[in-house]
Design brief:
By secondary structure, the protein is mainly α. It has two domains: 6-63; 77-161, no CATH class. Helix content is 64%, strand content 0%. The protein has six helices and no strands. Helix 3 packs antiparallel against helix 4 and helix 4 (106-119) packs antiparallel against helix 5 (127-148). The radius of gyration is 21 Å and the shape is extended.
Length: 162
């Protein structure tokens, strides 16, 4: 068979590989059954569904004809670097790196850092819009994770909160 849509083929392949990896990783935990689910049940089912979705997309890329074959273009290194960097920055700001002497800055600062750095990945950067988005995300995250779910992690910088 000939690949008729490169984008769909590689996207489906990525979904399939990620789904199989999650399902395989879930087998290291107790699976249980539908009535008494163990900690590995949900990731196993999610991994299986993701792998099936990927196979469906791969099948579609081999069957459905496209006009130009939808070739995969060059890798956008700049946006990729900013997105990955923003996630790393989020982790560092949230928990700190004690071995390097970086204190925990907490959830609010981490979300602002993540949002501003990730926004640099786009073609346009509008500081006012990014600040509004970061504020909405910070308030929503605080309400969801700290107030509703009562998760215990630093919300404010450790040198302020104590």
């Amino acid at each position: 068979m000939r690949i008729k849509s490169q984008k769909d083929f590689f996207a489906g392949l990525m979904f399939t590989i990620a789904g199989v990896a999650f399902a395989w990783g879930a087998t290291h935990y107790t699976i249980g059954n539908g009535a008494r689910m163990g900690p590995g049940y949900f990731p196993l089912m999610l991994g299986i569904l993701l792998a099936i979705l990927g196979l469906v997309v791969v099948f579609g890329s081999l069957v459905v004809e496209t006009e130009d074959g939808e070739p995969v273009g060059a890798i956008a290194w700049r946006p990729l670097g900013f997105i990955i960097g923003s996630n790393i920055l989020f982790g560092v700001l949230l928990a700190g790196v004690p071995s390097l002497g970086i204190p925990a800055f907490g959830l609010i600062v981490a979300i602002y850092g993540l949002t501003f750095v990730a926004a640099l990945a786009g073609d346009e950067f509008k500081a006012k819009e990014v600040a509004i988005l970061a504020t909405v995300l910070a308030v929503g995250s605080y309400l969801a994770f700290v107030v509703l779910l009562k998760l215990q992690f630093p919300v404010w910088p450790s040198f302020i909160a104590g």
